[in-house]
């Protein structure tokens, strides 16, 4: 049997050698930690491949295309970086972003606003309404076809109510100057180039102006960059801040009231003194004469000042315009509106200024700042103004306010629309993409300094300089503000609304650069102010709130693994060594063994399971 067994063993070995042993194993001289295409090794290398391949994985496809193209690649071993899946939720990669931007530039001319059909005095009202509906329907079909051609092209949710566009048509027809109000942080998103073309189609003598509102959020250099850019585009630009103008007016009004009170007190004292020293009807007559002469002198001085201002304005704003980057005050903006148009006006001797813009860019606030009182209702929710209205700013200057219209324009994602205030935050369904986009724009230290929070650092193996994702920011913010759910976790949805509203209002400031300047050069952030605090030094409750999943570092893992076990002998059942017994501490002890060794030993106290496993329920 032994001989047969040995014979069988040798036969099997011989068969294996005959099949696989004739080829010598190749040795790789490359001692580096690299996988490389230069090493022509492997079982199938050099053999004729006659297998039919119809389906293959992406990795196999990559290797085959590299082999066919003759390209060389190297992949370094052990050079691994972990990518957090929560970091890029709802965001585009750089290649995807570039592809979409190129497509948007190619389809830029297809983005149009609806035109009002041509009509004459012979056109009836019913026929005109029918023509308007037909034109509007064609316009909507063209935009839907544009979106169907490429799903990656995302349009803003443009206005689909014909009545709003009718209001715009009326404003353009009545206005001598059409002013597009844009947000200073991203002017190109709120600018409609097709609107400028339509204004010139209605009347080539009409003037287009871009009013950059919220310009107090920009620095002097940033305003100059935009002034130069729009100068190159051939459009007049003015920089204004409605909130700043309103504050300045209120401060001046308070100072004037205080001065008037002081002057009135002085006048009363002087009149009382004169009444005491002088009496008679002649004195009162002289006082009235002096007052009338003083009023006449004031009127002539006011007229001279107005003439001088008009001369200065003509010198400052000639027909060949030059955009000024200065932040205009209320009076300067009014004088700019007065002098910008010199042709024949729609209304005789009255210059009509039409104000057009997206919702929530500060259009109503600008009108209230110019009128120095509340004439138009203001709301943070887009679409507060419903109908166009006319307001006389001065005798020869008329403002025509148009309802806020969301005109069709390209955006990268819906999160971009939320951050720019186009979509209302309170109606937002998914907050994660918008907050992730915010975190990619606002650095970690700016968020920590603004809110006084400590955001969880990247886990071991991740890029230490990566931006935080939405969960890390919202957990820290919610814990700091006390926004907690019924489960004891920080309320992320509520925290997201507060953080996004701070971005829209400008507390978290991020300004997008013109196409001619790099973003990193255009907008810079302040340095870190608060001192860095290690996560280990924070309270235990705060550490748990900062992360949904418990973080175990490699040091803690090694410590638990290499922890020295207690040398205890475990004995089950009756021992066969009567001279050996175990103490309560687990050590060996010699001596006589009692008949019942379990007596005298304290049993483990029974503990309720909810107390025993209480640490599992901690949040």
TrEMBL record:
Its main location: cytoplasm. Keywords: Coiled coil, Cytoplasm, GTP-binding, Hydrolase, Nucleotide-binding. Residues 1-22 are annotated as: Disordered. Residues 165-408 form the CP-type G domain. It is found in: Cytoplasm. One of its GO terms (molecular function) is GTPase activity. GO terms for cellular component: cytosol. CDD domains: HSR1_MMR1 (cd01857), Ras_like_GTPase (cd00882). The keyword Transcription does not apply. InterPro entries: G_CP_dom, GNL1-like, GTP-bd, GTP-bd_ortho_bundle_sf, P-loop_NTPase. The keyword Metal-binding does not apply. GO terms for biological process: ribosomal subunit export from nucleus. Residues 287-314 form a coiled coil. This is Large subunit GTPase 1 homolog. It comes from Glossina austeni (Savannah tsetse fly).
């Amino acid at each position: 049997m032994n001989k047969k067994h040995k014979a069988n063993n040798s036969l099997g070995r011989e068969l294996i050698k005959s099949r696989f042993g004739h080829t010598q194993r190749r040795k790789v001289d490359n001692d580096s930690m690299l996988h490389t295409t230069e090493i022509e090794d492997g079982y199938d290398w050099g053999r004729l491949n006659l297998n039919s391949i119809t389906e293959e994985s992406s990795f196999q496809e990559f290797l085959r295309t590299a082999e066919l193209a003759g390209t060389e690649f190297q992949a370094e071993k052990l050079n691994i970086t972990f990518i957090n899946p929560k970091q890029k939720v709802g965001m585009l990669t750089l290649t995807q972003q570039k592809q979409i931007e190129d497509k948007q530039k190619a389809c830029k001319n297809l983005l149009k606003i609806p035109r009002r059909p041509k009509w004459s005095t012979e056109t009836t009202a019913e026929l005109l309404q029918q023509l308007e509906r037909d034109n509007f329907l064609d316009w909507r079909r063209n935009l839907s076809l544009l979106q169907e051609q490429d799903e990656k092209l995302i349009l803003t949710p443009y206005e689909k109510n014909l009545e709003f566009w009718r209001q715009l048509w009326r404003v353009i027809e009545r206005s001598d100057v059409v002013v597009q109000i844009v947000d200073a942080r991203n002017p190109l998103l709120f600018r409609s180039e097709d609107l400028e073309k339509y204004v010139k189609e209605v009347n080539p003598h009409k003037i287009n102006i871009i009013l950059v509102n919220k310009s107090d959020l920009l620095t002097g250099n940033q305003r100059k960059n935009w002034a130069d850019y729009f100068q190159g585009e051939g459009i007049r630009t003015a920089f204004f801040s409605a909130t700043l103008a309103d504050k300045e007016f209120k401060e001046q009004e308070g100072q004037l009231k205080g001065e008037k009170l002081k002057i009135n007190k002085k006048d009363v004292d002087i009149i009382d003194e004169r009444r005491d020293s002088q009496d008679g009807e002649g004195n009162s007559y002289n006082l009235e004469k002096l007052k009338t002469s003083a009023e006449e002198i004031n009127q002539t001085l006011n007229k001279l000042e107005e003439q001088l201002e008009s001369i200065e304005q003509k010198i400052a704003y000639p027909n060949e315009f030059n955009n000024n980057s200065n932040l205009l005050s209320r009076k300067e903006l009014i004088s700019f509106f007065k002098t910008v148009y010199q042709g024949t006006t729609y209304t005789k001797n009255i210059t009509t200024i039409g104000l057009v813009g997206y919702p929530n860019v500060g259009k109503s606030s600008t009108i209230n700042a110019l009128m120095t009182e509340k004439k138009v209702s203001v709301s943070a929710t887009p679409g507060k103004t419903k109908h166009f209205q006319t307001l006389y700013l001065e005798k020869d200057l008329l403002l025509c306010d148009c309802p806020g219209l969301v005109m069709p324009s390209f955006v990268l994602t819906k999160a971009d629309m939320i951050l720019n205030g186009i979509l209302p935050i309170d109606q937002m369904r998914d907050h994660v993409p918008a907050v992730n986009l915010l975190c990619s724009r606002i650095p970690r230290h700016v968020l920590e300094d603004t809110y006084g929070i400590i955001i969880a650092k990247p886990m071991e193996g991740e890029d230490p300089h990566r931006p935080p994702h939405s969960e890390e920011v919202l957990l820290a913010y919610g814990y700091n503000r006390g926004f907690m759910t019924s489960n004891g976790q920080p309320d992320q949805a509520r925290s997201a609304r507060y953080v996004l509203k701070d971005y829209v209002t400008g507390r978290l400031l991020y300004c997008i650069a013109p196409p001619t300047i790099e973003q990193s050069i255009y907008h810079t952030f302040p340095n870190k102010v608060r001192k860095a605090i290690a996560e280990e030094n924070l309270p235990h409750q705060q550490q748990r709130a900062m992360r949904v999943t418990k973080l175990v570092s490699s040091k803690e893992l090694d410590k638990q693994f290499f922890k020295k076990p207690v040398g205890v002998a475990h004995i089950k059942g009756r021992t066969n060594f009567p001279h050996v017994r175990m103490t309560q501490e687990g050590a060996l002890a010699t001596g006589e063994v009692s008949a019942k060794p379990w007596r005298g030993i304290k049993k483990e106290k029974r503990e309720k399971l909810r107390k025993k496993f209480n640490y599992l329920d901690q949040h």
